[in-house]
Every structure is written in C-alpha cells, then in structure tokens.
Amino acid sequence: MKNLTDSFVFLGQWPSAGSFGFNTDILATNLINLSVVLGVLIFFGKGVLSDLLDNRKQRILSTIRNSEELCGGAVEQLEKARARLQKVEREAEEFREKGYFEIEQEKGNLINAAFQNLEQLENYKNETINFEQQRAINQVQQRVFQQALQGALGTLNNCLNGELHLRTIGANIGILGAMKEITD
Predict the structure, then answer these.
(1) With contact defined as beta carbons under 8 Å apart, do 146 and 172 qualify?
(2) Coiled-coil region(s) at which residues (predicted)?
(3) pLDDT per residue as tens digits for the range 97-116
(4) What is this structure's pTM?
(5) Which residues are within 8 A (CB) of 164 and not within 5 positions of it... i.e. 6 or more apart?
(6) Up-side HSE of residue 40: CA atoms within 13 Å toward CB?
(7) Could you tell me which of 17, 92, 124, 168 has the fewest CB atoms within 10 Å of its CB?
(8) Which domain holds residue 84?
(9) Rounded CA gap, 4 and 157, in Å?
(10) pLDDT digits (tens, 9 = 90+) for 61-96
(11) pLDDT at residue number 12
C-alpha cells in the first residue's frame, strides 16, 4: 500500500511526460494561460485591431487635415481682416485730417465773415451818424435862417415902407428859390 500512496504523491508532484494531470504550480499555469490567451488574441484579433487602429489613424489624419484647412482659412480671413482694418484706419486718418483742415478753413471763413460784418456795421454806423449829423446841421441852419429872416423882417418892417418892403421880400424869395434848387 505504501507503493500505492507513494505513487499518488509522486503523480501529484511530478506528472509524467505522456499523461494528463493537474498542475498545482500557480505561477507556471498563469504564465501558460496568459501566453495562450495572448496568442489567440494576437492571431484572431490582429485584423480587427489593425482595422480599428487604421480607422482611428484615418480619423485623426482627417481631423488634422480639416484643422489645417480651417486654420488656413482662418489665417486668410485674419489677413483680409487686417487689410480691411488698415484700409479703414487709413481712411479714418484721412477723414480726420480732412476734417481738421475743413474745420480750420471754416473757422477762418467764419472769422473773415465776422470781420466783414463788423466792417459793414461800422460803415453803416458811420453813414448813419453822418446822415444824422447832416440832418441836424440842416435843421439848425433852417432854424437859424428862419430866425434871422424873421428878425430881419421884423427890423425891415419897422424901418421900411411898404414899397421897399415888397422889393426886399421878392429878392429874398428869389434867393430862397435859388437855394432850394441847389439843394434839390
């Protein structure tokens, strides 16, 4: 019996080369199982994995191309926007300079127009003053003349007779008529 039990122990520890048995060494069996699983996965999954990787690669390349195209379009739009911005800035500067020039020109024109208006007003004022002075002088001359005439007539009436009185009045009327024709 001892041989029988020894043979079981012996079989449990050292399996024979041609027989089937259980391997109780966990490390050795895990390595064998892993290598078998990896071998099967590599053999059968190689095509699927290769297809998945190729699809992923194509999507990445497509995304990169699209991104490059979008980047190129964005750069082109940026350049166009910069060109438009520079153009608008130049036009704004031209308008600003033109506006300043026109403002200064308009300012000069307004100052000149104001001086011309002042000169015209001064001329009108002087003409009005001269006219009023002349009118006042004429009124004073007429009053003085009337008073002198009345005084002379009063003196003549007291000193002259009727006939001399009529000749003097006729002469004075002639002088006044001549003066009136000169002033008209």
Answers:
(1) no
(2) 71-98
(3) 888 888 889 999 999 999 99
(4) 0.37
(5) 156
(6) 5
(7) 17
(8) 33-178
(9) 201
(10) 999 999 999 988 999 999 999 999 999 999 999 888
(11) 47
